[in-house]
Amino acid sequence: MKMVKPCWKPSVEGDGRRSGEGSSRGRVNGLLWYKDSGHHVNGEFSMAVIQANGLLEDHSRLESGPLSSLDSGPQGTFVGIYDGHGGPETSRFINEHLFRNLKKFTSEHRGMSTNVIKKTFSATEEEFLSLVKKQWLNKPQIATVGSCCLVGIICSGLLYIANAGDSRVVLGRTERTVREVTAIQLSTEHNASIESVRKELQSLHPNDRQIVVLKHRVWRVKGIIQVSRSIGDAYLKKAEFNREPLPSRFRLPKPFRKPILSSEPSILVHKLYPKDQFLIFASDGLWEQLSNQEAVDIVQNYPRSGIAKRLVKAALHEAAKRREMRYSDLKKIDRGVRRHFHDDITVVVLFLDPNLISRSSCRGPLLSIKGGVGISAHSDF
């Protein structure tokens, strides 16, 4: 009974009106937001966000329960990690619209599928580009704002991973032969630092010798941006947004005929097995500091409660070490300036209960939670 009980929890966890561990909004400690533990349809979870930019550009969401608007529709767990660049507008927009679009298409198609996910990404992209068009004359710089988009969905025993950009999800899997938990990266990344991504861009733009440029020892698309896929970044997708009144520093010297960046996600469908222990979803701020196996080892070797916060703290320790400074000194650096030492970091850890995953008719617990809500200007973390 203890094992089955979480499946039937009937109500939303927390009302979202106050900050606290029992609230769906989590807790805030300076630049840190965290939710140490909670239950989703398929097990337990932990979340944490640390701000580095002047404005938090990472946005995230966890949904547990209905994945469509139909009473007879599928139930499951949804995780979204949206790592913005150029500002928070796109990642915030995705956080407000993408899951709603997913429920819409899941209802129309009466089930979850890769086609539903592709339509969800496309619709969210088109909605944001429409917003850019409406604000173009008064706020042209919104055309330069974009976001990576990582989505994970657990539904009917299957895990769907969709990614556009360089956020990452890593699976912790028990291997009998070595008696340890092995890290398996499930997401495909789209960053110009990866040779295969550069080759893909060059094949798509054979007549553009400047499609990828090595600038200050970093490969960038058109010498501007590292990611090759994103939501937003309208100025690199539609020529109409790469002209005045956009400031000249963002305008390309030559017009382009087809989109330079893409919003199409790479999608993986993975059947979950009992040996699949947990999933670590995180923006690239975590993976810049920790390897896949280092992160998996931390999750495996420490208590579940607060594990996302522990991963964030491990990343900050590593960031301080690389700059030959003490962690206690890094904690004193305020947002904005903090970005010179590490990026915004968002982490969601999903623990997988095989008994709950196998129950396709499971109807709870219901939960809707957005990461990072209420982060303030001062930090003691």
From TrEMBL:
GO terms of molecular function: metal ion binding; protein serine/threonine phosphatase activity
A Pfam family this chain is assigned to: PP2C
Superkingdom of origin: Eukaryota
InterPro entries linked to this entry: PP2C (IPR015655), PP2C_BS (IPR000222), PPM-type-like_dom_sf (IPR036457), PPM-type_phosphatase-like_dom (IPR001932)
Disordered: annotated segments: 1-24
Keyword entries, A-Z: Hydrolase, Magnesium, Manganese, Membrane, Metal-binding, Protein phosphatase, Transmembrane, Transmembrane helix
Record EC number: 3.1.3.16
Enzyme class: hydrolase
Transmembrane segments: 142-162
Record domain PPM-type phosphatase: where: 44-352
UniProt record similarity statement: Belongs to the PP2C family.
Protein name, per record: protein-serine/threonine phosphatase
Species the sequence originates in: Tetracentron sinense
